[in-house]
Design goal:
Number of domains: 1
Protein name: TIGR03643 family protein
InterPro entries: CHP03643 (IPR019882)
Order of helices and strands: HHHH
Shape: globular
Strand content: under 5%
Number of helices: 4
Structural class: mainly alpha
Helix content: 40-55%
Pfam family, one: DUF2805
Length: about 80
């Protein structure tokens, strides 16, 4: 499915991957990419230093994996993240 992605899709996946509260499962649901596919996409699309920074950031982060989140947390983002004026 990664071959079917538009540049806009790739941009959104990168954005979702950087977001602390967006689990990999949400990316898989929306785009059909498993965690290992997202890692490959990030490695391909980011500069090496940016990729290393991202990997360090998400490794072990409980919010990036739905099964590691505390029970009852069902949202993918903070309620104040997307404020409308």
């Amino acid at each position: 499915m990664a071959d079917d992605l538009t540049p806009e899709d790739v941009s959104r996946i990168i954005e979702m991957a950087w977001e602390d509260r967006t689990p990999f499962e949400a990316i898989e649901t929306g785009y059909g990419l498993r965690e290992k596919d997202v890692i490959s996409l990030m490695r391909r699309e980011l500069k090496p230093a940016s990729f290393r920074l991202w990997r360090k950031r998400v490794t072990g982060r409980t919010t990036k994996h739905a099964r590691l989140r505390p029970e009852g947390v069902i949202r993918a983002y903070c309620p104040t993240q997307y404020k409308h004026r």
